[in-house]
# Entry
Amino acid sequence: MVPKHFTHFIILSLCFSASLIAQRDNAQYVDPFIGTGGHGHTYPGASMPFGMVQVSPDTRNDGSWDGCAGYHYSDSTILGFSHTHLSGTGVSDYGDILIMPVTGDQKFNPGTGNGYRSSFRHQTEKAEPGYYSVFLDDYRVKAEVTSGDRVGYHRYTFEKDGTVNFLLDLIHRDPVIEASIHFVGNNRIEGLRRAKYWAGDQYHYFAIEFSKPIEAGRIFNDGKEISTTKAAGQRMQAFATFSVRKDEKLEVKVALSAVSIEGARKNLEAESNGVDFDAAHALAKKTWNKYLSKIEVEGGTLKEKRIFYTSLYHCLLTPNLYCDVDGNYRGMDGSVHHAEAFKNYTVFSLWDTFRALHPLMTILDPDRTVDFVKTLVHKSKEYGELPMWELAANDTRCMIGYHAVSVIADAYAKDIRNFDLAEAYDEMKKTAMLDKRGLKAYRTLGYVPSNKSSQSVSKTLEYAYDDWCVAQIAKALGKENDYTYFTGRSQFYRNVFDSSVGFMRGRNDNHAWVEPFDPKAPGYNYTEGNAYQYSLFVPHDISGLIGLLGGRKALSVWLDSLFTTRMEVNLGDENDISGLIGQYAHGNEPSHHMAYFYNYAGEPWKTQQMVRRILNEQYDDTPGGLDGNEDCGQMSAWYVISALGFYAVCPGQQEYAIGTPLFEKAIIHLDNGKEFVIQANGNADGRPYIQQAHLNDAPLNRTTISHRSIVAGGELVFDMGAQPNKAWGIDQPVPGEYIRTSNIVYLSNPTDKFIDKFVVDMKCDSPRADIYYTLDGSTPDRTSKKFVGPFEIRENTVIQMCSFTEGRAPGYVVKRTLTKAESISLPPRQNPEPGLHYSYYEGIYRSVYDFSADPPVATGTAEVPGLTVRKRDEWIGLDFHGLIKIPEDGEYTFFISANDGCQLKLDGEEQFESDGRKSEAFAQQASVALKKGFHSFQVKFYQCSDSLGLTVEWQGPGFTRTPLPKDVLFHLD
# Structure
């Protein structure tokens, strides 16, 4: 029994400790200008941790590569201060609700020298977490901004007496769908800016309140004044006029909502009533110090502390709150929903952040991680699938994979379970079973074929990891059949490994490797990378990967080559392959786990050496201090978690891989009230090597540590040295999926159509495998018919086949529906007319599926699929549909070269669909057996912002590849 007075002492001690954490000023080390130069794409303005509002200066409105965050350190003029910004993305968006104090004449355009923008000097700028200020030289005005969760706060101090016109510009940056402005009372403006760009339909309702009455309010649409206090249009601007005195301070509050003006008004009133600029600034500083004090580091240089805490700051900027104070939010179905028992968020850069940011949040903020999981599940229920890259309730469909499953699986594996797991699993499985983005062919062939989908190698590898994540949740729920099924899919990475070259490599649907092959060259089969940067992306089955490479020594040799082979290809200034150490590209995410793989090669000292090198070389405390896009916290999260001494190589597992700690001491203050201390004795520059380690006083001779060990509190002690201890950690067991399945079965003929007969020739890449199959719809097992040689079928047949290898689980069951080709009969008394029908669309499209529900801008007929019917050069969609007349029975191959994406359907069946990334020079193609006569024919195409191109070709019996001729294309009226 604990004495009563001792209990009181514990409580007082805990309170005192919490007070110290809250008061610690780690914000002093944060420099929000880090990443605003080079290609970091960060912004210097004010936001709360994970806040809805990011009020920051905009220096650009051109949507350029280095204008993604609205600000670039190389610029010398400011257009104004908008209230939404993205941190470190590779595509521009946001920059909504721009405010600029203008003295002198009213100006409607930002201009280049005589518009409403103002020059400024970096010497007058100041930025810290939750605060930014600058002197606007042209207007002689000091501008300051700070932020609450849903409200942005401004304060302007005027150098002299006069008149100031506050410009509200709703035209600024992205195209506007609709907008409205309403002067309410004597000091408030309310309205809406609904815009489209990367996110195709985003709502930003606002309520703006000034600290003094507006003397005159004027509304303009496309530069023409509207003599009312309320108006709507697409090019809306307004001026609020005030008389000001020298040194007067005028404050502005701006609340946002994605739901309604009423929601913005409620947010304004709930968060800012009685709160002036100084109070808001003080709260922002206190809040930031609370979050930044979750990790306390000691030792290291001032530069290292600046990089560390700025990185931690960047990690806490996204995802962003996306619900009002009453819990209402706009869902991905466009409707308004109410968040029950969770807060809704937006900005999920999942292809980036699943790797380190979300694992870091499982340590630092498990409750918010629950909100993230619930948010993603609800988005899937609203949208029909888990989003890939969600922004403002839109799926931008950027990047690849379905990595929301990683966030969910990782939370569950880390014992964060305050959500409905069965509900989450339903959405995970639903997404994994889609037919989009190469998944249909992936399920049939065991990989995404290069000739039918862009980025095929990367997609295959990332789908395999995602499938492993789905399998872990299936296992947790006792769904053994699903667990076996998705475990089988998780080993599809093996099907794109070419042992003859030692790399993951593109493969066509006929199982032939794509030629030519250069592992150093970035290209069509990889996502922002090359074969070097992708071939080790098998985080869930490292033992299986090592087996493919030929053993642990082979893995070490492979890694040595990765870090020493020079990049000889000219990548250009804006390429995502940056931060190079040999072929390792730290500036982009596919490489982020690789330095830790030396642990599994039995050479952990090389992990320690390389991680320390990356920490020292790839980050700096200057505006250009990031070697690649910040990517919504991922680049910084790698630094934070690696500087602590470990890394989540495989999110979805309890284990972290140990690297090398950067600081002499780090204390993680956990939300459960406990502390985890990482002590690195003798740590210094040039001493990255672990000599020995102890966890809670017990010797630790492995290169992993569990999440449970961290959150339980305790102490991890390293003794560091200048020379490697090559005996420490070398016996680390290599993680991998313990169910090893037999290799997939495939047919030598990739097409499922045949004219008179189909020769069934089953293949398996394992020479020791036995193949069994069924033709009656049952699942094959060892009692089914064994494949002994090719045979013919002449009728429609569903064939299921599976391989069995001694010492392994049964292989993945492949189902193929073989169909006899038939032409279609035309309606009586209807003669086909030359040409195809087309529908032309304009909008923010990133998939051929995006424009199907939109009304077309124009319709008509075209001789052949092409771009002459377009009305502009980007953000367009085209749907060509009608009939194709096949001249004789036989196999035909269709080729489509398209930027950015295309789809081909014959007789209503999809032949291929690709998002088309960098695909103009790479034709998608499909071979299919067709009967003489008419067949339905459809080509869909979309283009967003790359170079424009569409070419449709074919070849068949008696002729080689040639443009699709107009004399075989028809339509019915």
Notes: Residues 456-476 form the longest helix (21 residues). The radius of gyration is 30 Å. The chain has a mean pLDDT of 93. Residues 833-971 form a domain with the Toxin - Anthrax Protective Antigen; domain 1 fold (CATH 3.90.182.10).
